[in-house]
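Hi Q.,

Before the meeting this afternoon, I wanted you to have the beta-D-ribofuranose prediction in hand. No need to reply - just skim if you have a minute. The sequence and ligand are here:
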Amino acid sequence: MLSPTNMDPTKILLDCDPGIDDALALLMAAASPQLDLLGVSCVAGNRPVHTTTANACALLELAGRGDVPVHAGCARPLALPEARTNLVHGEDGLGGIAFAAGPAPRQEHAVDFLARTLRDEPIGTLTLIAIGPLTNLAMVEIREPGLLRRAKALLVMGGAAFCPGNVTPAAEFNFHADATAASVVLNAGAALTLFGLDVTSQAAMSADWIASLGRLRTRAGRAAHAMLAAYAFEDPLLHDACPVAFALAPQLFDCRQLHADVERAPGPDEGRLRPDADGHGPRFELATAVDREGLLERVHAEIARLA
Ligand code: BDR
Ligand code: CA
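Predicted structure with the ligand bound:
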């Protein structure tokens, strides 16, 4: 979002696991002149971390932003032996579309990169957007407690507060993939706004809207259209674009304050976001509603900027 005082673009870091809906979020973040994308960190989530990292590199190349540094991060959740991946986005995570490989990722581990950038940027200037399992962010907070509080805003896609989950009846994918990390991040006391299924379930892409991306006649438009056409669902949801759209146009969303924590224990409730009516537990903003038409327009407009 443009700051009213100096109109400088908002400095952002994007932590992601591309993933088709991550891909749209990443293309928006790379395209928007309102955002200054300082770097992309990757985590195991939709696919293993080497795949999500290669995908981020390829997507930035597609966006003409091979200059943005990409860092590979954690390969498995904090308290589990292996990543909980899925095949919703295809074996390669991007719907089987052939992308040109981008520049190689940097050597520095994503957790080191995130921590260094949070330390180096003045307090209250960085917006940290996280659209995969929260393992990298939790590692930052565990290693240096208080570091996440240096961010101006922490915008997270994850959880399901007042609706069923999408990977188990209790849990949303990103929170289930690393419930311990989700709890660590919620408890960090950062300026957090959460975009869970409560709001992203309102963000359905229509077939017409997907077709309109194909009509852009740009490389990015055609790639976005092809990825979405390969998605395994009817009317798929724009989960990960929501926090990026919020950074650009917060007026599209309604939010309310919530106290809630994440169930860490293995079992049927693992990853459940548990609201606490008595006002205990971590407090944050929960996005509750989105202007769907406005969101679709905004995502389209940002992707349309790309060649
Ligand atoms: C989340 O899970 C992933 O499959 C998507 O990329 C999104 O981040 C939605 O539950
Ligand atoms: Ca994701």
